Amino acid sequence: MKYLLTAALVLFTSPAFADFTQTPMAPPPQEIIDRVLEDPDCFLPEDLETNDMWTGATLDANTRIHFIPCQLAAYNMAVKVLLERRDDESDISTWDTLSFAHYSDELGWSASDTLTNADIDADAGRLTEFVKGRGVGDCGSVGTWIWTGYTFAMTEYAYEGECKGRLPEEWPVIFTRTSAPDSARTPDTLIDNPDAQTDGADCSVAPFCEDRAYFKDFLVACRQHRQDGSRYCSANTYVHNTSAPAGFDYQLRVSRERSGAPLRISMIAVFNMMSRKDTVDVHVDGIRQILLAPDEIETPESINDYFIGPQDLTDHLIEAMKSGSDIRFDYTNEAGEDASAQFSLSGLTASLLWMREYGGQ
User: Fold this and answer.
1) What is the pTM of this model?
2) Chain centroid offset of residue 116 CA
3) Distances (CA, A) of 210 to 79, 179, 236, 257
4) Which domains does the chain have, with CATH numbers?
5) How confident is the model over 182-210, as a mean pLDDT?
6) 247 or 256: which leads in pLDDT
């Protein structure tokens, strides 16, 4: 159940209009609710009508959020969080089950596909949860996430492990995002092109005002130009798994912050997250290229997005990848078990050349 990236539960319905701001809120279709509640960790009274406790809100013309009750206790209610999406040219909905980072003294940082006592301020795009350690609410955790135009990014997390009679406002804040997350709906005026919103483009839907191209097994994309003409670009490939909620288990990303900046490599584990106490062995075409020590693995953006830290090792691996056909990451997962992720490198070199051409100044 440890999913940090969006887990896609794709089923289809056909409401009358594509623009959510023009239609009333309604619960998800029953088949969507039934699929979500198949999770054995969900337990509800047999006579509970989930539609009676469902809540939801419209985030923008293409996206709605739904809370589906999953667990009920004396002072906590856990919900599954679904995003309902449509594009501008269709009245077909897709349904994404979201997961979120959580903290506890027992597990440290982990992931869960439920939120407890969740609340959404749709106007501000702010999602919150309040986990009560006991009924008076003097211990537990409070998390805050902000809508970025495609998903939610954590902005603050407070945690009180011992019940000491303190109010949540007094709890230690153990995570604070130091910069505002990228938002397609509300651009950062310091780095985003101020004319982008006047060009008539809707950056809240695919392709999100990006330039994109496909080269065999890679998707390569460059974001909008910043005011200085630079762009963030990345080439991405996946380990597909049609039975997984997201449709894939792992993602490999080669990215560049701007033209002339060094390339960076990261592996994202949707499931089977990495133990940060063990080494990571990286092979290209079955030949070991690098052996990463625990302190050579970085997670600057998300706890399941693993970057190769030393730039010289990254540069060495990039050169090996350009002439290789596959790359494999061998690591130990959080359960202490051996895990492995293997990616095709077909299309990588063409993607890097495309990034160089379209990456801006």
Assistant:
1) 0.49
2) 19
3) 33, 22, 14, 14
4) 7-176 (no CATH), 207-358 (2.60.40.1880)
5) 47
6) 256
